[in-house]
Amino acid sequence: MHPRPYLLLAELTYQCPLHCPYCSNPAKFQRNNELPTNDWLRVIEQAADLGALHVGFSGGEPLQRRDLEQLVAHSRRAGLYSNLITSGIGLDSQRATRLREAGLDAVQISLQSDEAGLADKIAGVKAHELKLKAAGIVREAGFPLTINAVLHRANIERLEQIILLAEKLGADRLELANTQYYGWAFRNRARLLPTRRQIDYALDVAAKARARLAGRLEILFIAPDYYGDRPKPCMNGWGNRFITVNPSGDVLPCPTAGDIPGLRFENVRNQTLQWIWNESDAFNRFRGTAWMPDPCRTCEFREIDFGGCRCQAALITGDAAATDPACSLSPDRRKLLRFVESIQGESPNQFFEDGLVFRQNPG
Amino acid sequence: MPPDETSCPQLARGVRLQTDAKTGDPILLFPEGVLYLSETAQEILCRCDGRKSIGNILDELAAEYEAEAETLRKDVLDCVLDLYQRKLVVV
Predict the structure, then answer these.
(1) Using the beta-carbon criterion (under 8 Å), do A105 and B29 form an inter-chain contact?
(2) What is the pTM (predicted TM-score) of this model?
(3) Which residues of chain A neighbour B29 with C-beta distances below 8 Å?
C-alpha cells in the first residue's frame, strides 16, 4: 500500500515575465507543448481521488493561463484547497475577483528584494512596483497572503528591509527561502550562493524578526543545505507526499526531478495519475529505504531525511542513488565543500558581472 | 485578547473546515497545511460562525450531548484557545 499525495503541484506553464537567474525550472531546452484545459481538469479530479488535499498552481507564471479560473473552480468542486503561486504580474482587481469567485483559497507572491532598483535587476524586468500593487489587490480581495523571497548573495543583506516590506504589505506568512540549486539556479550557483558570513547574518536577522513578530507574521527561514550537516528531508520522501505535473503533462515526484538522467517520466496524456503514482518506475525508484546506498541504509536518520535530495545527488555526484552530499556522512561531501569554500571570497558587488545567466522562456 | 466565553470565534481568513474524503476525518485546510481534528473539535468549529459566542456554543453542545458542564466548558475553551494561538481561529 503506497502513501497518498497530499499536494498536487500544477505547473501550468513555463512562460514567465520574469527572468530570475535563481529559478529552479529546468534550464535545458523546453519544447512548448502545454497541456490543454481538459487534461488539467482530469488531472485535478484524479489527484483528488488519490487523496490530495491541496493544489498549488505554479509555473512559470500561472496567471498567463487564461483558463486558470476554470481550473480553480474545478479544484474547489473536487474539495482541493487551492493556492496561487505567482509573481503577481498580470493580477488586476478584476482577475482577483474572478479567482475569488472561482474559489481560490490563498495567494503567494514572490519578491526579489525590498526596492525596485535591485529587485528589477534580479528579475531582469521592471516588476517590483507591479508586485507591490498586486499584494494590495490580494489583501483587498480577502485572500491570505504569503510573501516568498528567494535569498542569494545579491539580496540576502537586504533581509531586514525585506521583512519590513512584508510586514507593511500585510502578509500573513513570509517565506525566506534560500535558493535551491537546481535548474537555472544550479547553472548560476557560483554567483548565487551566499558566503558563510552572509548566512550567519541572515540567521540572526530572521531569529530576531521571528521573536518581534510572533503572533502577527509567521516567518519561515529555509537555510541553504550547502551549509548544513544534515540533508533536507526532500519532498518528505520520494513519492510519499507530493506529486508534480509539469506544463507538458509529465508527472514528477518533485519539480526538479527532470535533472536526474535516466529517469523516464510518464505523461498524463497516456496514463492515469493513479497508475503513475502507484506503479510507475519513476515514482518507485527511490521510494522507501530499500534503494538506499551506504551509509544511508543503516543510518538512524534514514526515515527522517530519506537520504536527502535525489536531484542534488545527481547534480553533484552524477549518481541519483548516492547519499546527498549535503550530508556530512556522504562519501562525496568534499565535492560540495570544495565548491562552498571556493566562493567565500566573493562579494555581492560582482553578482551581475559576466557569467550570470538569466532565465529564458521556452521557445 | 485571548478568547473567553463572550468571544464569538470564527475561522481565520483562508481556513476551511471540511472532511478528508479518503478517511472521513474532519480537517482544517489552510495555506501550506492540514490539521486533523477530533470529533469534538469539529462539533465546536462547525458552530464558530463569528456570531455565536463561546457561551452560546456551550449551551448548544450541552443540549445535544451528555457531558459534565465544567468538563465541556474546559474542552471548548481549550480547543478554541489552541486554534486561536495557531491563528486558525480569530475572535
Answers:
(1) yes
(2) 0.95
(3) 53-54, 81, 105
